[in-house]
């Protein structure tokens, strides 16, 4: 068990190193970063001075190591546009994004898990049919379109919720719904197929044959085992939602990291873009590490299987 | 409640029924029909579109669809804020959405399948290296990476396709690797190896053909994803540039008119949804038919 945990920790560190290489490369993609920083009409001499100042004349690996050593301390440099440390800006906006993501995920889970399980229990019923139509639509609707439709119907026509901004619980409803819809569809689908799989297992049949009541078999035997794979899904979904937040926040003018990122990309604010990408990736890695460890706790067989791979 | 574990339901879960008994699925037919319709309309856009999609007619701006008051028969789905015909723009936009989607899936499939084959077949260090790279790409929010790269390199058609492929190949790599891990242990592979086949030939002639099922299924589902992905980039202003009409651009344009002219954003959104729905239905059907145990 301990060996497995250490192995996973080491893996996570490696992944974060890989992320740092890509984030570092992002700035150098355009060729000469100084061209991004200086106005077009800048003199050759200014360019040279800035290059020296930023250490861009050093070999690439020296620059990377310098970048990495600062990054692990949380120093991504000043945002070009706002002239404050990139990390400060992220710290200000991250709570809003986490709030939105958590609300979207919670909404998805609260609707999808019971729906998926009921659909499995009442297979081929009307409920099952309604669920599968919902799943199909949920997976086919792009988040930005769903967002616009929600604004059109619930903000413009009905006037129930605000169309934009972050101001209390009511303003959270539409963005969280738009963001959570896709995950809702996926989770409902997983919950349904997971439950069907468990219901077909021998121990469920045995329990039933032994005369246990359907209620006990369903909730005590089947449900618990069907819940296990959902734990890993939640970790992955959280990452997908963090990415989806970029678009949702743009539509609903939600003051989170996603909107900050889009803004930073369009204003060529590369330190800020780097910091945000690195931050979100780190968050994703940590959450999935935690989920994996919870998973192994719930289902110890997994350590054995994975260490064999 | 008991029907879930009835013998019939169990048989459903492990379908071993002979192909002759399989009914033609309504979902598959519907999916294929919609897809063919969308694809055909996109291909034939120059012939069937009533207007030039870029032609601006400012006197006729923001006309609603034909069934509403003020609607005009020559603009069945209405016009946008510059007086361009929405139907024509949707028809032309389909060329970009489907074309970019197909190219991006092909490219990401090529990258992902190659790396997945290598990782699964060679195992050991090769596998560990490739899988860590996969983890890196899973961890980075792909839409931000894509935006950053497209913005830095310039939003040309080629760049958009490249970026989409480079950020999504992991889906192929993971599923192919998992499949190859079990295929390479099978007897026909050791048999082929014992006959003195070289690795390359072994991979291409014996392993790859047996891993085709998941590749086909993932490719279909990824096509649906790529269509959404492309329009998301367009929506954010980083897709293929105007005046080329794309569904994502149309949505972005319509965003400012949600309150006053609902049809601007609704119809292109509907086009995206229908296409994605059709592709997904087809993908689901392929999976259920070819390999119901596939977890994708």
Overview of this protein structure:
In chain A, 80% of the residues lie in helices and 0% in strands. Chain A is mainly alpha-helical and 309 residues long. In chain A, helix 6 (126-140) crosses helix 8, helix 10 runs parallel beside helix 11 (257-266) and helix 10 runs antiparallel to helix 12. The model of chain A has no long low-confidence stretch (mean pLDDT 84). Chain B is mainly α. Helices cover 67% and strands 0% of the residues of chain B. Chain B has helices at 7-13, 26-43, 45-48, 86-122, 124-139, 142-153, 157-168, 170-183, 187-194, 199-207, 212-235, 247-255, 263-290. Chain B is elongated, with a radius of gyration of 23 Å. The two termini of chain B are 28 Å apart. Classes of the chains: A mainly alpha (309), B mainly alpha (296). Chains A and B meet through helix 1, helix 6, helix 7, helix 8 and helix 9 of A and helix 1, helix 5, helix 6, helix 11 and helix 12 of B.
Query: Ranges of chain A with pLDDT <50 over ≥5 residues?
Result: none
Average pLDDT number of chain B: 84
Number of strands of chain A: 0
Q: What's the main sheet of chain A like?
A: none
**Which protein chains are joined by the largest interface, and how many residues does each one contribute?**
A-B, 59 and 52 residues
The total of helices of chain B stands at: 13
Number of helices of chain A: 13
Radius of gyration of chain A: 24 Å
The mean pLDDT of chain A is 84
* Strand portion of chain A: under 5%
Shape label of chain B:
elongated
Fraction in helix of chain A = over 70%
State the helical fraction of chain B.
55-70%
Write down the secondary-structure element order of chain A. Answer: HHHHHHHHHHHHH
Oligomer: heterodimer
Largest sheet of chain B: none
**Distance between the amino and carboxyl termini of chain A:** 15 Å
Helix-strand category of chain A: mainly alpha
Question: Could you state the order of secondary-structure elements of chain B as H and E?
Answer: HHHHHHHHHHHHH
Distance between the termini of chain B: 28 Å
């Amino acid at each position: 068990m301990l060996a497995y945990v250490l192995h996973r920790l080491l893996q996570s560190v490696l992944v974060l190193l890989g992320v740092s290489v890509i984030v570092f490369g992002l700035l150098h993609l355009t060729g000469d970063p100084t061209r991004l920083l200086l106005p077009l009409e800048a003199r050759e001499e200014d360019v040279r001075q800035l290059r020296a100042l930023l250490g861009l004349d050093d070999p690439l690996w020296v620059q990377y190591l310098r970048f990495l050593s600062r990054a692990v301390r949380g120093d991504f440099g000043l945002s070009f546009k706002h002239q404050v440390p990139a990390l400060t800006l992220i710290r200000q906006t991250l709570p809003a994004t986490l709030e939105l993501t958590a609300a979207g995920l919670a909404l998805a889970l609260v609707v999808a898990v019971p729906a998926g399980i009921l659909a499995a229990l009442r297979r081929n019923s009307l409920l099952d049919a309604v669920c599968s139509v919902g799943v199909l639509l949920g997976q086919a609707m792009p988040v930005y379109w769903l967002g616009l439709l929600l604004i059109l119907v619930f903000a413009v026509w009905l006037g129930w919720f605000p169309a934009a901004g972050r101001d209390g619980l009511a303003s959270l409803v539409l963005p969280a719904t738009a963001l959570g819809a896709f995950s809702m569809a996926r989770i409902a689908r997983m919950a349904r197929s997971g439950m069907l799989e468990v219901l077909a297992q021998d121990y469920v049949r045995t329990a039933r044959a032994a005369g246990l009541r359907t209620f006990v078999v369903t909730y005590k035997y089947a449900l618990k085992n069907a819940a296990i794979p959902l734990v890993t899904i939640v970790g992955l979904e959280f990452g997908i939602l963090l990415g989806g937040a970029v678009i949702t926040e743009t539509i609903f003018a939600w003051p989170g990291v996603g909107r900050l990122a889009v803004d930073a990309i369009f204003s060529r604010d590369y330190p800020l873009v780097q910091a945000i990408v690195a931050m979100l990736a780190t968050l994703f890695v940590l959450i999935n590490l935690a989920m994996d460890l919870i998973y192994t706790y719930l289902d110890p067989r997994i350590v054995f299987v994975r260490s064999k791979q | 409640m008991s029907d879930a574990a009835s013998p019939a339901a169990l048989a459903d879960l492990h379908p071993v029924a002979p192909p002759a008994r399989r009914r033609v699925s309504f979902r598959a037919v519907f999916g294929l029909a919609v897809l063919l319709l969308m694809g055909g309309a996109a291909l034939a856009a120059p012939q069937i579109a009533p207007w030039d999609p870029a032609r601006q007619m400012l006197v006729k701006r923001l006309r609603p669809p034909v069934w509403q008051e003020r609607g005009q028969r020559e603009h069945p789905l209405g016009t946008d804020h510059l007086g361009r015909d929405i139907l024509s723009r949707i028809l032309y936009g389909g060329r970009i959405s489907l074309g970019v989607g197909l190219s991006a899936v092909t490219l990401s499939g090529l990258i992902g399948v190659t790396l997945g084959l290598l990782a699964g077949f060679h195992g050991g260090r090769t596998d560990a290296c490739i899988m860590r790279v996969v983890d890196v790409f899973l961890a980075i929010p792909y839409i931000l990476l894509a935006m950053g790269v497209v913005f830095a390199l310039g939003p040309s058609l080629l760049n958009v396709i490249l970026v989409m492929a480079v950020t999504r190949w992991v889906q192929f790599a993971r599923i192919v690797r998992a499949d190859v891990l079990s295929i390479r242990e099978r007897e026909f592979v050791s048999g082929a190896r014992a006959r003195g086949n070289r690795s390359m030939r072994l991979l291409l002639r014996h392993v790859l053909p047996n891993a085709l099922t998941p590749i086909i299924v993932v490719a279909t589902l990824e096509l649906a994803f790529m269509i959404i992905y492309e329009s998301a980039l367009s929506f954010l202003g980083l897709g293929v540039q105007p005046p080329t009409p794309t569904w994502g651009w149309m949505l972005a344009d319509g965003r400012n008119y949600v309150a006053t002219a609902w049809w601007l954003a609704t119809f292109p959104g509907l086009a995206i949804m229908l296409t994605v729905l059709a592709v997904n239905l087809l993908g689901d059907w392929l999976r259920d038919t070819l390999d119901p145990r596939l977890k994708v």
